[in-house]
Amino acid sequence: MKTTLMGMLLLLLGSTCVKAQGFHLGIKGGANITKVDGKAMSEEFNYGYNLGGFAEIGLGKKWLLQPEVMFNQYTTQTGTDFEDIFNNALPGSNETKVKLNYLSIPVLLGYRLTDWLSLNAGPQFGILMNSDKNLFENGEDAFKNGAVSLVGGAQVNIGAFRFSGRYFTNLNDINTAEVSNPWQNKGWQLSVGIKIL
């Protein structure tokens, strides 16, 4: 069933690319300014980074589809009451930096306001990468504890260069502990990209 759905998706994407008025590939990277919103977590924003590739598929003069594959590092910090809320927390867990590494797949719909400015929005699917597992095992875990986000922002296009700023927020709870304290990643993603094809 999964193979059939994947085949249909690739066929649809392929036919869209053939009919599209423009198809481009590029690479991009930049900074993440994020926090995990929820009980026992710090309200401070922290810095991480993003790195990956993007495609631009023209859907007429004004619209475009922009799928991406990105590695996102989100950095957050536990709150001063972390040990009080999580009884099994290790001593010294209060105000501890936490790094969350995601393989993120945003699928954005863009609208060109002008030749140099476009708006984009859409879903972003994230797989939390566990360094002890391979990509396929991480992918299986994503069905249990993957992150689904909503993304929106703007992009400035100057020649082959792309300068983008986005805001994202999780739609689901990323807390997998057996307590009723929902956590959500949210924040800003700033990046610079270049079209290479």
How would you describe the overall organization of this protein?
There is one protein chain. The chain is α+β, with helices and mostly antiparallel strands and 197 residues long. 17% of the residues lie in helices and 53% in strands. The protein has three helices and eight strands; from the N terminus they run αβββαββαβββ. β4 (97-112) and β5 form a beta hairpin. The longest helix has 18 residues, at 2-19.
The secondary-structure element order is HEEEHEEHEEE
Structural class: alpha+beta
What is the distance, rounded to the nearest whole angstrom, between the alpha carbons of the first and last residues? 34 Å
Helix content: 10-25%
Approximate shape: elongated
Low-confidence stretches: 1-20
> What is the strand content?
over 45%
Q: How do the strands of the widest beta sheet line up side by side?
A: 1-2-3-4-5-6-7-8
Separate helix tally: 3
Oligomer: single chain
Mind summarizing the main beta sheet?
8 strands, antiparallel, barrel
Radius of gyration: 19 Å
pLDDT averaged residue by residue: 78
The total of beta strands comes to 8
SSE diagram, text form:
Elements: H1 2-19, E1 23-37, E2 46-58, E3 63-77, H2 82-85, E4 97-112, E5 117-128, H3 135-145, E6 147-158, E7 161-170, E8 184-195
Antiparallel strand pairs: 1-2, 1-8, 2-3, 3-4, 4-5, 5-6, 6-7, 7-8
